[in-house]
Structures are given as C-alpha cells and as structure tokens.
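Per reviewer request, we include the raw input and output of the structure prediction for the construct analysed in the revised manuscript.
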Amino acid sequence: MIWYKHYIGDFSRDTGHLSPLERGVYRDLIDHYYATEAPLPMDRTKLYRIAQAHTKDERAAVDAVLPFFSEFNGAYHHKRIDKEIKSAAARGEINRQVALAREATKRARIVDETFNESSTLGQRISEIRVHTKKKTGAGR
C-alpha cells in the first residue's frame, strides 16, 4: 500500500505511554508493514534495520514496541494492519471490476458507433453509385 489512514486518536490513546523514540520506532515498523503488505520478520537484526535502530537505545525502543505485534506463523503480525490491508485489497478488486465494466461498455459503444458510421457510409456510396448511373446512363 502506498497510503493508509492514520487514526490520530487511536494511535495517541494506544501509544501515550511510550517515549517519543518508541513512538517513532513504532511508526517506522507500521509504515514498513503497510508498504510491504507483509508481517514483520521475527529476526531482530532485520527488525532493527527496518526501524533504522543502530544505537542501544534505539534497539531497546524496537524491543519495547514489539508487544503491539503478535507472533504468528514465524512473523510479527498486527491485527488492525492485517484487517486494513485485506479491506484495501477488497476495495481494489471492486474498483478493478468497475473499471473493466466501464471499459467494456466504452469499447462496445465505439464499435457500435463505428458500425453505424460504416453502414451510413456504405448506404451513401450505394446512393452515389445509383445516382451516378442514372445521370450518365451507365448500365443501359
């Protein structure tokens, strides 16, 4: 996902007890989760890298926010993020189906208009031929 809703009230309520460093690390992990649409790796070294946690304090901040995630199938999951990603995928599929239907209608209209124009052109050519034959006496 390249965009997600950030519910300021929910975030502040859930993270009010965290230090500014911990809140920043938590946001980095959330952003990565949404961007990759995949749970976070269990490997702490990878987590530290994702959160750009290089110092002892920064790594401690990563460790402090891990309780916001649950371990499942060898990865750290976040219930709300999983729900939002699934919902966005469903909306995306609906939008895709609507776009396909709109394009099919548009193509059908173009084909119909082209056919009607071709029919009209064909009739005019026939009329011109008949009129020309009458004028010149061709075909007698």
